[in-house]
C-alpha cells in the first residue's frame, strides 16, 4: 500500500512540475554585486508622467533614493573614502575615524560605507536621520547649523585634527598627517571590515603599524565630491538619455551635483542648459542672478539660511564653497523655490504618480517645470533632474502635516496644478 501511495505521489509531482514549464532564462554571472558599495550608482532615470504629459516634454528624474544609503550622497561618500584611502589619509584596517558636518544624507552615506565615523549635524534636522545614523553606529553630535559650514570654526575639522594622535579624541594637534608617532593596532572582528566591500576581513587579524587617523571628509571643499558626479552621475545621464538632454536642473548644498554633472554635460554638449533650484533663505540664487550672495533687490536672500526656518533640507547655502564655485560659470538660469511650492509638488507627485520624494527633489522638479514654462518648451525636449532622497527621510518635517500647518506652510496641490496650466 505504501509503494502504491508513493507511486501516485511521484506521478502527481511529475505532472505538477511539467505543467509549469519555465520560460527560457538567460544565465549570467555578472549580476552579483560585491557588498553594499556595489549597490551604489547606476540608478534608473524615471520619466515623470504627470509633469511630462502636462507640459509636452520629458521630465526625467534620476532615482538617487535607490542608493543603499538612501540618497545621492552615497556616490560622494564612496569617492571621498576611496580617494582618502588611496592618499593614505585614512587606513582601512585601523580605528581611523571620519568626521563630517552634514544635514544627514552625507553622514548616513559615510556611515554606510566606512566602519569608523563621527557625524556632526545641525540641530534643526529631521530626527529620522539622526536615528538612522545611530543605527549605523555613528557618533552624532548636534550643533547649530552654522557650525557645519563655517570655515574658521568648523567643528568637524577641529575634531578630525584632534583625533588620532594617540588613537583617541585627544587635544587639538593641528595636523594629523604630520604625526610621526606610530601605534601598533591589531585589527579585531569588531573593527573590520572597514567598509562594506563584500570581502570577509574577519580572519585578517592583520597587524598594521599605522596610527589610526582622524579625517575630515569636507564635502564642501573636497574635490572628490565633484569627481563622483563628473565621472559617475553625469556620464550615466548622458548614456541613459542617449545624448538627448536639453537641460539639467539641480539644487545645491555643496554644489557637487550641479558642478560635476553640469560640467560633464557641458563637455559633451555645449548648448545644454544648467539650471539652479534654490530654496528660501539661500544666497545662491542671488549669486547666480546678481553675482553676490546678499542683494538688496532680493530681500529674502539677505537672510542667513540658519535664520530661516525652511522645511527644505540638503540644498541652499550662504557661503561660496569650492564645489559650487566650479558650477558658477555654467549655470544659465536659476529659480527661487518657496516651501509652499516644494510641499505642493511632493503631494502632487504622490497623488498623480505614486512617487514619494523628499524636499530637495520636490524643489528640483518645481524649478524644472518653471524653466520649461519660461522657455516655452512643449515639443518633447528633455529636462533631467535629481531625485536626491525619498520622502521617508522627512516624516517629521516636510511630510508632517501638523508641522507644516504650525509653520504656516500651506499643503495644497493646486499650486502645482495652476503652475502646469499657466500659459
Ligand atoms: N538633496 C539632499 C537630500 C542632500 O542631502 C543634498 C546634499 N546636502 C543635496 C540634495 C545637494 O547636493 P549637493 O551637495 O551635491 O549640492
From TrEMBL:
It comes from the Eukaryota. This is PALP-domain-containing protein. It comes from Thelephora ganbajun.
Amino acid at each position: 500500500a505504501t509503494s502504491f501511495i508513493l507511486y501516485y505521489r511521484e506521478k502527481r509531482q511529475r505532472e505538477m512540475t511539467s505543467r509549469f514549464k519555465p520560460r527560457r532564462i538567460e544565465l549570467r554571472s555578472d549580476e552579483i554585486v560585491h557588498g553594499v558599495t556595489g549597490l551604489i550608482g547606476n540608478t534608473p532615470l524615471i520619466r515623470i508622467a504627470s509633469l511630462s504629459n502636462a507640459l509636452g516634454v520629458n521630465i526625467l528624474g534620476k532615482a538617487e533614493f535607490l542608493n543603499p544609503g538612501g540618497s545621492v550622497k552615497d556616490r560622494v561618500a564612496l569617492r571621498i573614502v576611496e580617494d582618502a584611502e588611496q592618499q593614505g589619509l585614512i587606513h582601512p584596517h585601523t580605528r581611523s575615524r571620519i568626521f563630517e558636518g552634514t544635514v544627514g544624507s552625507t553622514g548616513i552615506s559615510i556611515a554606510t560605507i566606512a566602519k569608523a565615523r563621527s557625524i556632526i549635524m545641525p540641530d534643526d534636522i529631521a530626527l529620522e536621520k539622526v536615528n538612522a545614523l545611530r543605527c549605523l553606529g555613528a557618533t552624532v553630535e548636534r550643533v547649530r547649523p552654522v557650525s557645519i559650514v563655517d570655515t574658521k570654526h568648523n567643528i568637524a575639522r577641529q575634531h578630525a585634527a584632534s583625533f588620532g594622535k594617540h588613537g583617541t579624541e585627544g587635544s587639538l594637534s593641528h595636523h594629523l598627517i604630520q604625526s610621526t608617532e606610530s601605534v601598533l593596532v591589531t585589527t579585531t572582528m569588531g573593527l573590520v571590515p572597514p567598509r562594506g566591500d563584500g570581502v570577509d576581513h574577519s580572519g585578517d587579524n592583520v597587524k598594521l603599524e599605522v596610527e589610526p587617523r582622524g579625517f575630515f571628509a569636507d564635502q564642501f571643499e573636497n574635490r572628490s565630491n565633484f569627481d563622483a558626479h563628473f565621472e559617475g552621475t553625469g556620464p550615466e545621464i548622458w548614456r541613459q538619455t542617449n545624448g538627448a538632454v536639453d537641460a539639467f536642473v539641480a539644487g545645491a548644498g555643496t554644489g557637487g551635483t550641479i558642478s560635476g554633472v553640469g560640467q560633464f554635460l557641458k563637455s559633451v554638449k555645449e548648448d545644454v542648459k544648467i539650471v539652479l533650484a534654490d530654496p528660501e533663505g539661500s544666497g545662491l540664487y542671488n549669486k547666480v542672478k546678481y553675482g553676490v550672495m546678499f542683494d538688496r533687490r532680493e530681500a529674502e536672500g539677505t537672510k542667513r539660511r540658519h535664520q530661516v526656518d525652511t522645511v527644505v533640507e540638503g540644498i541652499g547655502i550662504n557661503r561660496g564653497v569650492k564645489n559650487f564655485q566650479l558650477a558658477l560659470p555654467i549655470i544659465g538660469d536659476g529659480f527661487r523655490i518657496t516651501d509652499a511650492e516644494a510641499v505642493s509638488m511632493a503631494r502632487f507627485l504622490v497623488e498623480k504618480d505614486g512617487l514619494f520624494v523628499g524636499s530637495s527633489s520636490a524643489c528640483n522638479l518645481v524649478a524644472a517645470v518653471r524653466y520649461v514654462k519660461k522657455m516655452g518648451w512643449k515639443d518633447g525636449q528633455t529636462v533631467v533632474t535629481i531625485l536626491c532622497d525619498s520622502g521617508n527621510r522627512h516624516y517629521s518635517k516636510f511630510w508632517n502635516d501638523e508641522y507644516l500647518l504650525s509653520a504656516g506652510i500651506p499643503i495644497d496641490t493646486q499650486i502645482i496644478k495652476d503652475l502646469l496650466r499657466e500659459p
